[in-house]
Amino acid sequence: MADRRIGGAGGGSDPGSGKGKSKGGVVIAAALFAGLAAAAGGADASGSIGAALDAAGSQSADAQRSSAEQPARDGDETEAWRRLGLKETKKWLEQRLRCAVQSYGQVQQFFLGTPCTSMDQRMVVLGDPHGNLIVVSVVWVKMGSASDADRLLKLENTYGTGDVTPVATEALELAGLRFTAQHYASRIDGSLVVIAETEPVHGNPAATLLNDAAKIAVLFPPP
Q: Considering the entire predicted model, what is its pTM?
């Protein structure tokens, strides 16, 4: 696996290479409709069926993500992941991290001048029924004021400014893994900034799944 630097929605990271699309049910459904496509006019019918399958898959993913949002807000991580079709295999939590030490670039310079009051980070490896594995990083940064948190979030969300770095890759046997910021979400709640990022670890997880996992992870309350 090639090394790639971590970043926010840009946050100083190298661009991701793009993720493959999941197969599973879409491929099976496409096979079932192959005969129909040929009988109904070849390429035009195939295109219509393909579009319908894509739309159905998107709606299903949206419904899964929506159903996982409330458990995530309630802090029920196991249930939130279950509703996305994922299950925890490994998890690591680091608390009371030093913000300026655990960051780089302009984000680090920001922390040197505007210290945070706390930083916690959780990393979790998740598996799906098809054998795919992904890793999720969630960072909770508590600032001294809402205005400081807003400044941090704007900096974090700007490409090329640096980021908070992960601390548990070796503990999770993921040494060498780097986050690309291709699958990223962030939010602010008063003086709290939350940053979530995901990456594939094994197999070919869909980009939709990686994006949805980040959108759910960012909803988790601080540990």
A: 0.73
